[in-house]
Write a structure and sequence with these properties.
Elements (H helix, E strand, L loop, with lengths): L1 E11 L4 E11 L2 E12 L1 H14 L5 E7 L2 H16 L16 H11 L3 E6 L7 H23 L4
Parallel strand pairs: 1-4, 4-5
Antiparallel strand pairs: 1-2, 2-3
Length: about 160
Amino acid sequence: MKKVVIHTDGGCHGNPGPGAWAAILKTDGHTKEIAGADKFTTNNRMELAAAIQALKALKQPCEVELWTDSSYLAKGYMEWMPKWKANGWQRKPRAKNKPVMNLELWQELDKLGATHKITFHWLRGHNGHPLNERCDALVQQAIDSLHKDAKERPNR
């Protein structure tokens, strides 16, 4: 299996508010940066979107080391998701009709994860790690583009 190292980040200006996600994929000396934005979303949705879009960018099954500063994403995938699946995608067995927040994104991540061998790693954000800082900069650029687009559009 091809080995890929992925760094992801997601964020919002306001929560909820305009948000963006970014990922950097590194393999065999090649680097690819991807990013996207949403006019109204949450930090957690953007963290999930970053991982999902990064995995979608892979063209074949890979051994993936995914680095994130989101404990929600890392713990969710490694610890909580197996329990949620066992409970019919409910947060707790006795939590009547309490579905998992962002369920459709977790289910998409689960489906993509079945294609790859993924190891999640958490790292402290805004702590000087170059790839984490670059992801954060890509997120901020994508959010800034949303603001710029909104200002350039005439009111109707």
